[in-house]
Each structure stands twice: as structure tokens, then as C-alpha cells.
Design a protein that fits this description.
This protein has 7 helices and 10 strands. With 279 residues, the chain is of the alpha+beta class. It is elongated. The structure holds zinc ion (ZN).
């Protein structure tokens, strides 16, 4: 079965971080163009963004959960890819790309120039500039531990889950529990851990939370290993291959026991599971 499209989760955003870091870390921003002010927060003008960024040097490209943060020699920029956002690199002076919202032209330390552009057909992304001395974004500050940046502390996660009566699958989607886990990662990780997504979070044993944390890491590593191009490839075309183990494979044989995978809705989100293997 094909999947409609993939919303960026931790692995896709980590891939975007790695490429952006190659393109922009250490570079000085020469010019910024905001083609579509709807990507900015309400009340923020393109002129203000341009003033805050031009002439600044990018010191690091960081990520927590599904958020990117560009640290500058003064201030920082937060970028969220929403559902369909992506950063691409083009020739300097190349024509405006389809769905282009923001353009950043910069000069690297080796004096080579580059043009990096943010494209977003559905426009659910965000681009927020925070000046030196201002607090980080609230959404960034409220994120729980990031499985790659911080690792998963099994005891701490077990203690956190022990306070939640909600089913484990929707609990994992709470960005304050673990940053960056979305519908795909949660579905795949619970299958790897052989845990039924409907189980109340507080009923999971410490051993099961350990299996779950290894399942999350396995699902992240598996997707990251498939990201080979320069920019994220969103699977949008009908008939495009589904790269996941059980996500989007409802009705097909379980990879473990060969009985058909089931689909149900939990917390309003489609969930695939094997009712025989996941307990
Ligand atoms: Zn099975």
C-alpha cells in the first residue's frame, strides 16, 4: 500500500540539519529575501528579518526534535519545516524556485558563494528570528529530551510514563515526552518493541521502556540511513515505494508472523499494528 506523504519527523529534520550545516556553517550572510511573509510570525515584517540577518555569520546549525536552530554571531533563527518544507541549495543568482519562501545568499569561509532557499508548498512551516539577548522560542524550550542529541534515559522516561494514563502511542507524540517522535516513528518503534500501542503508558515496565527506547533509536537510524540525497525526499507521488517496516502497510503480512497488519485510530491518528506480535 502506498502512503499519501511523509511529514518530517526527527530523521528528516536531522538530515536537513546536516545538509544546512554543510552549506552554511561558518558562512557570512550577504543577502536575505523573504518572498512570502506568511512564513513569518504574525506582525513580523520581511524588512525586520532582513535587517537581523544580513552581515551575520552562521556559527552552528542545531536541531531539537523537529526544530532547526541556526546560531549566529549575534542572535539565532528557528526553522520548522511544518508538513512539506525543505531547504535546498541552488546556484547563486538562479531564478526563483517553485514554492520558494525565503532565500539566503551567503559567502563561506573559503570565499565560495552559495544560495540556500526554503521551499514550502503547503506553508505550514515557520521561520522565526530571535535577537541577541532575547529568550529562545517557547516551542523550543518546552521540548523534552531529543533521542539523538540527549539520548534516551530509560529510567527518566519510565518515571515520566508512569504518570500518564493515556495510551502509549499518543503519549509518544507529545513533544514534551521525547522531542521529534511523530506518527511514523511511534508506529515503527512500538512494533520493534512488540508493545501494543493501546496499552496505558503507566502500565509499561522498565524493561518494556528499554525495548521501546531501542525501538525508537532503530527506527531513527533506519530512516536516516535511507536519506542519501542532498535534500529530503517527501514520498508524495501515488505508487511511490513505502520505505517503512509497518507504517502504511496495513492489510499486508506482518514481517514477523505473516498475519495481516491491522489499522486503527488512536488519539485521532492512524496507527498500524500487529495484534498478534504487539502485546
Ligand atoms: Zn505479527
Amino acid at each position: 500500500m502506498q502512503i499519501a506523504f511523509i511529514v518530517p519527523e526527527l530523521p528528516e529534520v536531522e538530515h536537513a540539519r546536516r545538509t544546512l550545516s554543510r552549506w552554511l556553517e561558518g558562512a557570512r550572510i550577504d543577502a536575505v529575501t523573504v518572498q512570502d511573509a506568511r512564513i513569518l510570525d504574525h506582525g513580523v515584517t520581511p524588512a525586520r528579518v532582513v535587517r537581523a540577518l544580513e552581515g551575520r555569520r552562521v556559527t552552528a546549525v542545531e536541531r531539537r526534535g523537529k526544530w532547526l536552530r541556526l546560531a549566529l554571531d549575534s542572535g539565532r533563527v528557528f526553522s520548522h519545516l511544518g508538513m512539506t518544507g525543505k531547504w535546498v541549495r541552488t546556484e547563486v543568482g538562479a531564478e526563483e524556485t517553485r514554492f520558494e519562501k525565503i532565500r539566503v545568499d551567503a559567502t563561506a569561509r573559503d570565499k565560495t558563494r552559495r544560495s540556500v532557499r526554503y521551499l514550502d508548498p503547503r506553508l505550514f512551516g515557520r521561520f522565526v528570528v530571535v535577537k541577541e539577548g532575547e529568550a529562545d522560542l517557547k516551542a523550543w524550550n518546552e521540548l523534552g529530551p531529543d533521542p539523538l542529541v540527549d539520548g534516551i534515559d530509560v529510567s527518566a522516561l519510565h518515571a515520566k510514563l508512569a504518570k500518564r494514563r493515556l495510551a502509549i502511542k499518543p503519549t509518544l507524540l507529545d513533544q514534551g515526552v521525547l522531542a521529534g517522535v511523530g506518527n511514523i516513528l511511534a508506529t515503527e518503534a512500538l512494533f520493534y518493541a512488540r508493545i501494543d500501542p493501546r496499552r496505558p503508558s503507566r502500565d509499561l515496565s522498565r524493561v518494556e521502556v528499554g525495548k521501546l527506547s531501542r525501538g525508537i533509536r532503530r527506527a531513527i537510524d533506519r530512516t536516516l540511513a535511507k536519506e542519501t540525497g542532498e535534500t529530503i525526499q517527501y514520498v508524495e507521488e501515488p505508487g511511490a515505494p513505502n520505505p517503512f517496516t509497518i507504517y502504511g502497510h496495513e492489510g499486508e503480512p506482518c514481517p514477523s508472523c505473516s498475519r495481516p497488519l491491522a489499522k486503527m485510530f488512536l488519539g485521532g491518528r492512524g496507527t498500524v499494528l500487529c495484534v498478534h506480535c504487539q502485546r
